């Protein structure tokens, strides 16, 4: 017998993945033919997009494989960022920027008479998140990779992401988001690393051979989790981390016992049911519903992810007891908080560690980021539902709780009300499991996402925990990645800034400060205005395409885009518009400044008030836009389906950023940061990161209005009476009366009655109390805008002083203070070197 032929060493063909123009062009045409099965004459735009995406992906692979190989070899301490949402935005443009291939790709397409922007617009963005929280996770992945920190993002691969919004007759209509319909070149499924997840059933005690007592979970069903991987390249570094999203599959394609009984359709049905688990993203932002499938989704992705980390950990040759030395697991809000009980289950039930050891590992592993102060957003699960799905975890939670509450008793002997408040189980009425409490008890670090928010956590929402463990609490103010939100979204500003101060700001954002040296240069200010004007013209063209409304690019662009929510107070901005409209109609408008009000954002489908707020915006827009007296003086547009792709066009074109939430309600906000970076001035309240933004850019470059969080507290305590404001403020009175008359609802006084009644009777978000201050502040904005040179200076200063709000800074703070991880640079390996890492 002849010896088997030696395996050829894996070859990485440098020619095939060359970064040169010729190389990229060759690869693009090859993929069009061999991957997409088209040739240029018959190919459509999406075919060209897919061919380019494959060519670019090939160029990411060597870095990705090099990163994985070196991580596996050196087993560095690794971050696992657990998040039920990742709102990534389109991948291709980000890959091109981070790989340094954008100009090359533009040239290659131009040579073939293809439009770069148009080809990139073919990508359906993966809308696997609701808003700020999911987008934060995406910015963090970019910063982790750029700072060369070994990291995984772990989440859910929803088949349908956040719904696609259209506006029909002024109302939001939801359509499914079939983002996968034309294929997804960025995803690499890894079925060989699938894991099994149990659900339902019961538990039973048993004794092992040595007579020790253990518990076995006998599930009602099992589901298979298939990892779907996405490469996350850092900016101009070799580090390429992994976003691993889990897809649910039936454990067996067919249930053979049912099949053998002849029930073929019954067997297939079971498969369909399992796969429903990752079918759709819940479209609620800042609210929870306590739905069974949602708890199953959360447990599913958390269990998959922890099993995956343990597999990797053991494969790297580390001992189970050192898990917390190798992995730092961040909980992005409470959605993944069940991970605390799941790691305990894996360590105690499956790896047979004693409780105390397992608990030490668990608490050293996890840290928890809180994202909200709204009570309706705090997750809690009815006990019966929880027990039905996760019977073993409920037992573990009871045990965690018993030990925890005993600890509390030592510190606060006899304080039974405190114990009831701290308990992991809410027993004030129907019984619930409190996920935020589980997260606090099972984590070594707890943080809020802006200074005010972190203070309010300590003084209000998590006060009892703060009194118990003050050392666990800290603040990490959010940030956004300057790669996507400047370099990629705003190429004109990027070019201007880079010409002035070089390009080091892209990875060191505080360097934007050097722009201040150009403040007194009239030519620079002229260029600055030209950039904004061109971005506004682009947005005007988009608005015309999407809404049919023609706006004047020389008017002030006043923008409010974010999820629609009462606490965010989009309806306060509408009251301002109605006020201006009344002033214009009655000839009382002094030096009126033409303004275009641009709104965008989705309402949760079951949130009726938010949907009515959209109708309110569009209805006022319809009247104002079609009033011949008003012409170009006021325009109101609602751009449908606000998402990352649209944001990339909107933030760079904004001149005024509306950040008008009631003080004490917005945890941080990140839209505020994107606007300021792109040179918009902010009109805002003392809420979330607005406070830090104002501190950075200077009070004189920020339009502040409204009551502070402390004043809000006092007003509410004294018994807030919105009707008093209505009766004492004639302009407010006139606005509300005009709306109530049916003027904006084709004569129907009932349409907006729910909104108005709520404002006059309860007004929980204090619109009426903040109205006057807001209107007066808007008058200051108008005056300031009319001094073009002064406005330009303020705009430049906003960009120049936004350096703090890079997510690179946020990630550095997490890495140093909470995760204790350090950068691990990656070297590029060829085929032979990759294989060497396995020796
Ligand atoms: C940044 C961003 C958000 C968050 O906006 P806020 O103004 O902070 O609420 C929501 N959605 C998208 C698409 C974003 O890009």
TrEMBL record:
Q: Which cofactor does it need?
A: pyridoxal 5'-phosphate
Locate the N6-(pyridoxal phosphate)lysine modifications and list their residues: 674
Instruction: Please cite one Gene Ontology biological process associated with this protein.
Output: glycogen catabolic process
Question: A single Gene Ontology molecular function, please?
Answer: glycogen phosphorylase activity
Reactions the enzyme catalyzes: [(1->4)-alpha-D-glucosyl](n) + phosphate = [(1->4)-alpha-D-glucosyl](n-1) + alpha-D-glucose 1-phosphate
Gene Ontology cellular component annotations, sorted alphabetically: cytoplasm
Sorted UniProt keywords: Carbohydrate metabolism, Glycogen metabolism, Glycosyltransferase, Pyridoxal phosphate, Transferase
EC no. given is 2.4.1.1
Q: What class of enzyme is it?
A: transferase
NCBIfam families the UniProt entry points to: P_ylase (TIGR02093)
UniProt similarity note = Belongs to the glycogen phosphorylase family.
Outline what the protein does.
Allosteric enzyme that catalyzes the rate-limiting step in glycogen catabolism, the phosphorolytic cleavage of glycogen to produce glucose-1-phosphate, and plays a central role in maintaining cellular and organismal glucose homeostasis. Phosphorylase is an important allosteric enzyme in carbohydrate metabolism. Enzymes from different sources differ in their regulatory mechanisms and in their natural substrates. However, all known phosphorylases share catalytic and structural properties.
Q: What is the name attached to this protein's record?
A: Alpha-1,4 glucan phosphorylase
> Which species expresses this protein natively?
Pigmentiphaga humi
């Amino acid at each position: 017998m002849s010896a088997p032929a030696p395996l050829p060493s894996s070859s990485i063909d440098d020619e095939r993945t060359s970064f040169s123009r010729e190389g990229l062009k060759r690869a693009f045409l090859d993929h069009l033919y061999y991957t997409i099965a088209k040739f240029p004459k018959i190919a459509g735009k999406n075919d060209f997009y897919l061919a380019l995406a494959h060519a670019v992906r090939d160029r990411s692979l060597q870095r990705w494989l090099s990163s994985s190989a070196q991580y596996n070899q050196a087993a560095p301490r690794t971050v696992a960022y657990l998040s039920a949402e990742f709102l990534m935005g389109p991948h291709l443009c980000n890959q091109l920027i981070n790989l340094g291939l954008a100009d090359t790709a533009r040239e290659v397409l131009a040579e073939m008479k293809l439009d770069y922007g148009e080809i990139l617009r073919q990508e359906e963005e993966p809308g696997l998140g609701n808003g700020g929280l999911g987008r934060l996770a995406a910015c963090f992945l970019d910063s982790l990779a750029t700072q060369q920190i070994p990291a995984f993002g772990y989440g859910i691969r929803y088949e349908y992401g956040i719904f696609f919004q259209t506006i029909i007759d002024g109302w939001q209509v939801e359509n499914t988001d079939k983002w996968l319909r034309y294929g997804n070149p960025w995803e690499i499924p890894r079925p060989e690393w699938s894991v099994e997840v149990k659900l339902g059933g019961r538990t039973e005690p048993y004794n092992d051979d040595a007579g020790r007592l253990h518990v076995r979970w006998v599930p009602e069903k099992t589901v298979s989790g298939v990892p779907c991987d996405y490469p996350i390249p850092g900016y101009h570094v070799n580090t390429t981390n992994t976003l691993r999203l889990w897809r649910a599959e039936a454990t067996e394609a067919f249930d053979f016992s049912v099949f053998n009984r002849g029930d073929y359709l019954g067997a297939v049905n079971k498969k369909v049911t399992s796969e429903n688990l990752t079918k759709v993203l819940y479209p609620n932002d800042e609210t929870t519903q306590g739905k069974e499938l949602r708890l199953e989704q959360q447990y599913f992705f958390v269990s998959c992810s922890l099993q995956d980390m343990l597999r990797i950990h053991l494969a790297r040759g580390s001992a189970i007891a050192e898990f917390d030395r190798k992995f730092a697991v961040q909980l992005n809000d409470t959605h993944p908080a069940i991970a605390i009980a799941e790691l305990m289950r894996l360590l105690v039930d499956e790896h047979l560690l004693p409780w105390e050891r397992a608990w030490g590992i668990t608490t050293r592993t996890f840290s928890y980021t809180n994202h909200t102060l709204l009570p309706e957003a705090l997750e809690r699960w009815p006990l019966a539902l929880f027990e039905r799905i996760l019977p073993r975890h409920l037992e573990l939670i009871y045990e965690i709780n018993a030990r925890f509450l005993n600890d509390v008793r030592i510190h606060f002997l006899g304080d039974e009300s405190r114990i009831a408040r701290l308990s992991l189980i809410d027993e004030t009425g129907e019984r619930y499991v409190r996920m935020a409490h589980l997260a606090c008890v099972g984590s070594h670090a707890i943080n809020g996402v802006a200074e005010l928010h972190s203070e309010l956590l300590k003084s209000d929402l998590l006060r009892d925990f703060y009194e118990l463990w003050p050392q666990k609490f800290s603040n990490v103010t959010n940030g956004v990645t300057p790669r996507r939100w400047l370099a990629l979204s705003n190429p004109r500003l990027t070019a201007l800034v880079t010409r002035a101060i070089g390009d080091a700001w892209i990875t060191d954002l505080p360097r934007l400060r050097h722009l201040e040296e150009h403040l007194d240069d009239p030519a620079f200010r002229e260029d600055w205005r030209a950039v904004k004007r061109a971005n506004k013209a682009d947005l005007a063209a988009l608005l015309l395409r999407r809404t049919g409304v023609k706006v004047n690019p020389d008017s002030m662009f006043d923008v409010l885009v974010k999820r629609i929510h009462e606490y965010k107070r989009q309806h306060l901005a509408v009251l301002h518009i109605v006020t201006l409209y009344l002033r214009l109609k009655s000839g009382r408008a002094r030096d009126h400044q033409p303004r275009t009000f641009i709104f965008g954002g989705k309402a949760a489908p079951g949130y009726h008030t938010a949907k009515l707020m959209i109708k309110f915006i569009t209805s006022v827009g319809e009247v104002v836009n079609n009033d011949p007296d008003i012409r170009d003086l006021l325009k109101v547009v609602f751009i449908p389906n606000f998402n990352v792709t649209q944001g990339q066009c909107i933030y760079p074109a904004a001149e005024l950023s509306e950040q008008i939430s009631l003080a004490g309600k917005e945890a941080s906000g990140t839209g505020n940061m994107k606007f300021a970076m792109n040179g918009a001035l902010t009109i805002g309240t003392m809420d979330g990161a607005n406070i830090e933004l104002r501190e950075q850019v200077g009070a004189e470059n920020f339009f502040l209005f409204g009551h502070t969080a402390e004043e809000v507290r006092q007003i509410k305590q004294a018994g807030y009476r919105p009707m008093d404001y209505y009766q004492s403020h004639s302009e407010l009175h006139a606005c509300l009366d005009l709306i109530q008359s049916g003027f904006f609802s084709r004569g129907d006084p009932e349409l907006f009655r729910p909104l108005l009644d709520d404002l006059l009777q309860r007004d929980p978000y204090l619109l009426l109390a903040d109205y006057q201050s807001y209107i007066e502040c808007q008058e200051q904005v108008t005056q300031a805008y009319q001094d073009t040179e002064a406005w330009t200076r303020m705009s430049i200063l906003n960009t120049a002083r936004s350096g703090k709000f890079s997510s690179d800074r946020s990630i550095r703070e997490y890495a140093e203070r909470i995760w204790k991880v350090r950068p691990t640079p990656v070297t590029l390996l060829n085929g032979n070197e990759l294989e060497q890492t396995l020796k």
